[in-house]
Amino acid sequence: MGRRPNVERADPDVRVHVFLDEKRGALYLDTSGEALFKRGWRMQTVEAPLRENLAAGLVMLSGWKFEEPLLDPMCGGATILVEAAAMARGRAPGMKRAFGFEKLDTFNASLWKQLREEASSPAQKAPRLQLFGSDSDATALTAARRNLGAAGVERWVTLEASDVLSRKAPASSGVMIANPPYGERIGESEKLARFYPKLGDALKRNFAGWNCYFFTADRRMEKLIRLSTSRRTVLYNGPIECRLYEFKVVAGSNRP
After folding, report:
1. By C-alpha distance, which of 99, 66, 67, 100 is closest to 83?
2. Are the C-beta atoms of 136 and 162 separated by less than 8 Å?
3. Is there a contact between 170 and 132 (Cβ–Cβ < 8 Å)?
């Protein structure tokens, strides 16, 4: 056109991705816009937040049934709790966000409105939810409350300020899912090595009868927590290879 393009590079209406090599080029029309793991509800982030789709995957891998109590005792910004609540209420992922195809000339707005209305009406009545979250960091709890409110699920989640080593179980049995720190900063590795045995003792003392799942990149946890691992699943948090460890907690010793 004889002049430099005026496309907004940071937030264009329509993204076209072009890949060139020595002999050919490929053009892709981006119909998603923002990455699909972004559901559109996250208002405030904490340090190293889980991606929403990964959090949803952890909930599904735990085998949590909607009528069971679910606890995240290190909830941070409440990503796991938001995804669990939305899943139980039958809410389609991404209901709170926009997509790239909405900016295309071929977009059918009335059909899309109909589809969204259908997706927002669960086919079956959701059970009474028992979702609990806690954190020892007041800033994290503030972020959790904002995110739960933005996602529209705050009424089903009970939050409290508490340390994972001292908090009590909210029910006699249930599912715990947590994403503890990985110890990547200087000095944190030694701190975590001292923390894991205390965590194992706290689980045996306060959470007998619970199935507990911990998602971490720290391979030492399985040994240092001094509990029998019933299952381990390899997952990736971005480029970081992690494990989801399952511990079926019983009172006393697990050994025969």
Report:
1. 66
2. yes
3. yes
Question: The tokens 């709170």 sit on which residue?
Answer: 96
Q: Which residues pair with 175 in a beta bridge?
A: 70, 211
Q: Would you kindly state where each structural domain of the chain is located, as residue ranges?
A: 41-94+124-248
**Residue 39 identity (one-letter amino acid):** R
231 by DSSP, 3-state: which? strand
3-state secondary structure of 197: helix
Rounded to whole angstroms, how far apart are CA atoms 94 and 114?
15
The model's pLDDT over 91-130, given as tens digits with 9 standing for 90+, comes to 888 888 899 999 999 999 999 999 988 887 765 676 789 9
Structure-token match 């701190």, residue found: 191
Judge: domain 41-94+124-248, CATH 3.40.50.170.
no
> Using CA atoms, how far apart are residues 32 and 99, in angstroms rounded to an integer?
5
**How far does Cα 170 stand from its chain's mean position?**
21
Q: What is the pTM (predicted TM-score) of this model?
A: 0.85
Q: Can you read off the two tokens belonging to residue 159?
A: 């939050």
DSSP assignment of 104-161 equals: STT--HHHHHHHHHHHTS-SSPPPPPEEEEEES-HHHHHHHHHHHHHHT-GGGEEEEE
Task: State the Cα–Cα distance between residues 143 and 149, nearest whole angstrom.
Answer: 10
